[in-house]
Amino acid sequence: MTQIPDIARSPAATDPLSPMKPGAFSTKAWQDNLTLYETIRTMPFNEELAAGTLSKARFTQYIVQDAHYLIGFGRALAIAAAKAPHPDQIVQFSKGAEVAIVVERSLHGSFFDDFGITQDMFETTPVSPGCSHYVSYLLATAWSEPYEVVLAALLPCFWIYAEIGRDIHARASENNPYQAWIDTYAGEEFHDAVRAMIATTDAAAAAASANNLARMHFSYRRATQLEYMFWDSAYRLEDWPV
């Protein structure tokens, strides 16, 4: 039997980036999926990343697949911008798409150099099943679902990365070879973007119909499950079986 992690161990369990406002979508979504978040926080990939013992092969697999993922994530953000009802949100998600593709790919480029990954190696490495599943889900949701449901599907990538980065930063080993990654996702600049995403999603949820609110919660949970699958696929060095 798999042991359920002790939720009280996680700083994010009691101090998430979003203020826990009664009635807010983010409050219920976080609380309903807290055990799932804790499973992600304590999974082997993140435990070994924090300890600095994660193998180079696994981190390389993660970085290459994450670079592939960011292209699809940027497209999904661009679709959210097109569906946004107000100009401020159009700007918010357009800038988010730019960050996903330009700024974060620049960060990955430095990791590529550090770990000996050439552009040709990246371009010829197929998208893994886990990455393909996640990107396909986000794009299908972005194209076919209402604006507020799209935001709920995009939110876990922002929020969980921030909380995991913050948690790992607090317990990372000294001279951790992955410190640059840890510092990026634990930094306040990224956290400010996450808080803005949470606030925008909550505002959209407040005006959503009961049916769309239920769909938002489904989308948030499914994307959270896919967050786990993405990290797990990197740890298992997942490839297509045939």
From TrEMBL:
CDD domains, alphabetized: TenA_C-like
One function term, GO molecular function aspect: thiaminase activity
GO terms of biological process kind: thiamine biosynthetic process; thiamine diphosphate biosynthetic process
Cited Pfam families: TENA_THI-4 (PF03070)
Leader peptide range in chain numbering: none
InterPro entries according to UniProt: Haem_Oase-like_multi-hlx, Thiaminase-2/PQQC, Thiaminase_II, Thiamine_Salvage_TenA
GO cellular component, one term: cytosol
This protein's pathway: Cofactor biosynthesis; thiamine diphosphate biosynthesis
Keyword DNA damage: no
Keywords noted in UniProt: Hydrolase, Thiamine biosynthesis
E.C. no: 3.5.99.2
Stretches for region Disordered: 1-24
Domain Thiaminase-2/PQQC: 44-236
Catalytic activity from the UniProt record: thiamine + H2O = 5-(2-hydroxyethyl)-4-methylthiazole + 4-amino-5-hydroxymethyl-2-methylpyrimidine + H(+); 4-amino-5-aminomethyl-2-methylpyrimidine + H2O = 4-amino-5-hydroxymethyl-2-methylpyrimidine + NH4(+)
Role summary: Catalyzes an amino-pyrimidine hydrolysis reaction at the C5' of the pyrimidine moiety of thiamine compounds, a reaction that is part of a thiamine salvage pathway.
Stated family: Belongs to the TenA family.
Protein name: Aminopyrimidine aminohydrolase
Species this chain originates from: Saliniramus fredricksonii
Lineage: Bacteria, Pseudomonadati, Pseudomonadota, Alphaproteobacteria, Hyphomicrobiales
